[in-house]
Amino acid sequence: MWRRIVVRLLSGIALVLAVVTVAFVLLQLAPGDPARFWVGPSATQDDLDAARRALGLDRPVFARYLAWLADFVRGDWGTSLARHRGVRDVLGGALPATIILTGASLLVTYLGGIIVGLLQAVKRARPVDTLLTVATTLVYGLPAYWIALLLVLVFTYGAARLGWPAWLQFPAMGVQSLDADFLSPGARLLDRLEHLTLPLATLGALGVAGTARYVRGAAVDVLDLDFVRAARARGIAGRQVLLRHVLRNALLPVITLLGLALPALFSGTVFVEVIFAWPGMGRELVAAVAARDYPVVLAATAVFGALVVIGNLVADVLYAVVDPRLRTGATG
Amino acid sequence: MNRDRRITVGVTVLVGFAGLALAAPWVAPFDPVAQGDVVRTRLVAPLAAGPDGAIRWLGTDQLGRDVLSRLLHGARISLLVGFLAAILSAALGTALGAVAALGRSWVDRAVMALTDAALALPRLVLLLALVALFQPNTAVIVLVLACTGWMPVARLARAEMRGVLVRPYAAAARAVGVGQVRLLGRHLLPNALTPILVATALGVGNAITLEAGLAFLGLGIPAPAPSWGNMIATGRDALVQAPWLATVPGLAVALAVVGCNLLADGLRDQLDPRTRR
User: What is the pLDDT of residue A166?
Assistant: First the structure.
């Protein structure tokens, strides 16, 4: 198992390096001359040449690539063109908000998806199953940005206008209220949870719908297998068979799914962060793209790639926890 | 839901949208970009009559433009981009999958490593990074979507083709000296076609969502053009006064995507007898 994790870790690092390399190539393709940008329009040819030397642009591409790579590995990600701050500062400040949002979404996604999927598998071909299949198919097709807008429309504006009870009204802006600094610790936590509700509901609805479809398929496959029937025949209680025998085996394909679900989740996060003014990486990325702030765009891309790699590593470890065959190293 | 019915519903939705999109210039009651008397025609509610007495079935936006007309014309852009991008990425993915399946082992490994690396990045992030480099217009959006959507097709095509290559008839064809190209055309492509079609159907839905998403972020096809994403973005600014502005085009996106997904689900189950239960 450790060998497997080390191999995956190394290939993950290779992947991040590949992303950074592609980012460098794209940076070279970007329109506009950085030296010209640096000295301004009224500069003479001599000024321009001096700026090129200062920025290292007179050196061969490969030498620049190595220097850039060395800087990147050391954590020197350059300066944001639009914000005039270190790129690492900008993204480092945004990372926690994104991790909180995506982490909570993953939790909701897997818990909800497993419950709904198992329920469907047990009630296979009954009305509940059909209803949930239609519901998950529909929700899965909805764009994240549209779900988010509908939630804001109903639970922020609609709830306020129709005078719904306070616990059914949710804020649609930021991570906390403006007066958060003056609240007691308990009230502050509640305030933050309220702000998390709608963004989480958006990503959670999409995640649960997508995961439930997989869990249902996997659980239906397992329910027909001999060992499940054998367990039932031995008189083991239905709930225990479901949890010990069916769920455990049905979980394997679902954990593998994490590798694909994580990129999709981050795509959704970008929209959700923009709509709910959630101060995370996705919002920084969109702002940077709009401002043609290349250093931030490229670093953000690399960080998202690294997050996916880390997620896949976690999935690998989980896989070994659920499947004891992998723990002994008997199978590769 | 019955698998045949899923295919029927999916095809009906897509053909219906395509028909409306093609007929938009004749069906649309108003000019999609004409603003007219903005003060008097802005934010007319759905089903209400405008100052000229003509009913605006889906209302008007902040600039007095008819939402139904914009929706119909927007279908042209959304469907064009969706289908073109999905077909292009299917072609690209099939080509790369075939190269991997037929090539030497190091070629196979290189192509698959590239595929896995591209799959690991969130597609929207990749799209945004590319859009940052080019001025978006319809062609750029199609190309950028195609460049970020070929990976699932490449993996599927490779897996299917390798499955065929180990069959006796493929070995026999090779033994009697059938060339790579002919092998590809006669045996590999026909066998891989259905899974590729399934992936393409899903790809159309994804491309439509993402095109509208980019436009929603203000980074898609530029503004006066009536695209569904542009419409949702404008609607967001008037969410309270005119909730129909954002909900109606979003519903169109959702319907088109669900149509694609139903078609793909139905096709996949038809293909895989294991799931027929």
Answer: 76
Chain B residue with minimal CA distance to A312? B120
Contact A294, B131 (CB under 8 A): no
Alpha carbon of B172: minimum distance to chain A alpha carbons (Å): 33
Tell me the range of A165-179, A302-316, B4-18 where mean pLDDT is highest. B4-18
Smallest CA–CA distance, residue B190 to chain A, in Å, is 27
What DSSP assignment string belongs to B19-73? HHHHHHHHH-SS-SS---SHHHHTTPPTTEE-TTS-EETT-B-TT--BHHHHHHH
From the list A26, A149, A150, the residue facing B133 with the nearest CB is A26
Bridge partners (DSSP) of residue B48 are: B56
Indicate the residue type of B109.
Answer: R
pLDDT for A250 equals 80
Question: What is the C-alpha to C-alpha distance for residues B34 and B32, in angstroms, rounded to an integer?
Answer: 6
Cα–Cα distance, A179 to A261 (Å, whole number): 36
B230 interaction partners in chain A (CB closer than 8 Å): none
CA-nearest of A137, A104, A98, A132 to A118 is A132
The complex's ipTM works out to: 0.84
Q: SS3 of A86, please? A: strand
- Give, for A73, the enclosing helix (H) or strand (E): helix A61-74
The Cα–Cα gap between A294 and A89 comes to 15
Written as six digits, the tokens of A9 are 């870790």
Under a CB-based contact definition with an 8 Å cutoff, are residues A230 and A168 in contact? no
B142 pLDDT band, cuts 50/70/90, is very high
| Size (chain B), residues | 277
SS3 A181: helix
Torsion sign, CA atoms B265, B271, B274, B277: positive
- The secondary structure of residue B275, as a DSSP letter, is G
Burial A80-104 (b: 16+ CB within 10 A, else e): bbebeebbbebbeebeebbebbbeb
A228: tokens are: 């499940």
Tokens in use for B118?
Answer: 């591209």
Q: What is the pLDDT of residues A247-269, one digit of tens each?
A: 887 887 778 777 778 888 888 89
Predicted local confidence at residue A153, as pLDDT = 87
Contact partners, residue B150, CB within 8 Å, separation at least 6:
B89, B90, B92, B93, B96
Given a contact cutoff of 8 angstroms between Cβ atoms, the answer to whether B14 and B258 are in contact is no
Determine, for residues A26 and B130 on separate chains, whether the beta-carbon distance falls below 8 Å: yes
A264 to chain B: closest CA residue: B122
Give chain A positions within 8 Å (CB) of B133. Answer: 26, 29-31
Please, what's the b/e burial string for B11-37 (b: 16 or more CB within 10 A of its CB; e: otherwise)? eebbeebbebbeebeeebebebeeebe
Q: How many CB atoms lie within 10 A of CB B222?
A: 14
Q: How many CB atoms lie within 10 A of CB A105?
A: 26
Which of A29, A146, A265 minimises the CB distance to B253? Answer: A146
pTM: 0.84
* Token pair of B57 as six digits: 């079935």
Is the pLDDT at B195 greater than 90? The verdict is no
Phi/psi at A246 (nearest 5 deg)? -80, -55
Dig out the tokens for A165 from the structure. Answer: 């009870």
Biggest distance spanned by C-alpha atoms of chain B: 78
Contact B247 A153 (CB under 8 A): yes
